[in-house]
Amino acid sequence: MNVDLIFKIAxxxxxxxxxxxxxxxxxxxxxxxxxxxxxxxxxxxxxxxxVAELFxxxxxxxxx
Length: 64
What we know:
By secondary structure, the chain is mainly α. Helix content is 89%, strand content 0%.
């Protein structure tokens, strides 16, 4: 497993957390929620790409 993947997910999480705190403190709860949802979608896309790569590797390994 690539350590860069963990760092990417952690970086997205930290950025979203800071933005969420800043937006919540300024009274913009809706934008904070949208930022959190956007961060979740970004992380899901990263994970989906890695799972697709895993399936392709397994497919190539077994020759399907």
